[in-house]
Amino acid sequence: MKKISVLLIALALVAALSGCGAPKQSFVSIASGGTGGTYYPLAGAMATIWNEGVKGMNATAQATGASVANVNLLREGKADVIMVQNDIAYYAVNGLELFKDKAYPDLKGMAILYPETCQLITLANSGIKTVNDLKGKKVAVGAAGSGVEANARQIMEAAGITYADIQVQYLSFNEAASNLKDGNIDAAFLTAGYPTAAVQDISATKDINVVSIGDAVIAKLQSTYPFYTKATIPAGTYKGVDFATQTVAVQAMLAVSSSLDAATVEKMLQTMFSASGSERLTAAHAKAGAMIKLENAQAGMSLPLHPGAEKFYGKK
Question: Is the pTM of this model over 0.90?
Answer without folding.
Answer: no
